[in-house]
Amino acid sequence: MQSRRRYAVAPACLAVALVAGCGGSPDRSAAAATPSVAATSSAATSTSSTTPPRTSTTRAATTTTRTSTPPRPSTTSRAPAASAGALLPVPRAGAEPSVRFPRNEPAVGAGANATVGPVPDSVWARMVGYSWTPGCPVGRSQLRYVRVNFWGFDGKRSRGAVVVNASIADAAAAGFTRLYDLRFRIRQMRPMDSSWGRNPKGPGADDYAAMRADNTSAFNCRYVGGEEASKVYSKHAYGTAIDVNDFENPYVDSDGTVYPGPYWLHRRDPAPGVFSSSGSAAVRAFTSQGLRWGGLWSQPDYQHFDR
After folding, report:
1. At 204, is the secondary structure helix, strand, or coil?
2. Can you tell me the distance from the alpha carbon of 141 to that of 12, in angstroms, rounded to the nearest whole number?
3. Within a 10 A sphere around the Cβ of 99, how many other Cβ atoms?
4. Which residues contact 57 (CB under 8 A, 6 or more apart)?
5. CA count, 13 A, side-chain hemisphere, 221
């Protein structure tokens, strides 16, 4: 914006203007001494009817004040974009688990950053009496705690953990690392413990609640799901099995009941969090580590990998 200054014309100057004309500059010497300053022409005209008006040859110096112009808002309509280091949230499907976007821990470090170690005291304390009880076929010393980053259904990089048998700990870490690199979505990944409550159909933590919440887990000292009356321990009771995204990858028991629900049973095309076929990169993330996929069984268990 240009700043304008108003100057009063002295009576003496007005009188001289009738004879010689009056310049528009309040200080002619200053204007002449600073030719680098931008100037504008100021013409003074005479009020006399008998003397033609004379144009002043003096240019008046003016002061220009520059102000920064704020950027104009964009008028272009753009679709929402994921923030840096994140993916877009997965849209709603025709059926949803009990928690759509769980509050997962934030990712730690770069990439999948998988780690394998003993089961921490704080984690074991929550497992005892729930996912582990006296009489279970394996004990704490045979189990490992695998921590890894994953891509959540909310689009964020998150961190989770599974407890597995030491014999498959490295395979599990490698498999989840591959899923991370593929940007395969995982809803949540929490050990089976007191936070899930007790299984209403036998020993172990409540796997049915975990399936409804689409939780990815491994060790849980329980019987085969849906067949508890047989009292046959599942491979999860040994820590040699992993269930990933239960909701998108359901399990069919011996009487045809689908857990946790049938919506995804016949929707096996590639989709976020879905193990679509034995040849898919997501399934091979685990089968290439020597684990077998339950999706090929006569009673398919699409969520399940074991050794």
Report:
1. coil
2. 107
3. 14
4. 23
5. 18
Could you tell me which of 230, 289, 113, 271 has the C-alpha nearest to residue 302? Answer: 271
Side chain identity at 186, as an amino acid letter?
A: I
Name the pLDDT band for 83 (thresholds 50, 70, 90): low
- Rounded Cα–Cα distance for residues 98 and 260 (Å): 11
Contact (Cβ atoms closer than 8 angstroms) between residue 48 and residue 22: no
Q: Residues for the chain: how many in total? A: 307
Q: How far apart are CA 179 and CA 113, in angstroms?
A: 12
Type and span of the H or E element at 114: none
Residue 52 predicted with pLDDT over 90: no
How confident is the model over 106-146, as pLDDT tens digits? 999 999 999 999 999 999 999 999 999 999 999 999 999 99
Q: Report the alpha-carbon distance of residue 307 to residue 305 in Å, rounded.
A: 7
Torsion-angle region of 226 (φ positive above 0: left; ψ -120 to 50: alpha; else: beta):
left
Residue linked to tokens 């685990």 = 286
Q: Which helix (H) or strand (E) holds 60?
A: strand 59-61
Half-sphere exposure of 27 (CA within 13 A, CB side): 7
Residues 194, 196, 201, 207, CA torsion sign: negative
In the predicted structure, residue 257 carries a pLDDT above the cut 60 = yes
Q: Can you give the pLDDT at residue 58? A: 39
Say how far apart CA 219 and CA 13 lie, in whole Å: 101
What's the rounded Cα separation, in Å, for the pair 60 and 44? Answer: 11
- pTM for the predicted model, two decimal places: 0.73
Return the C-alpha torsion angle 192, 131, 196, 212, nearest 10: 70
Which of the four pLDDT bands, split at 50, 70 and 90, describes residue 208?
A: very high
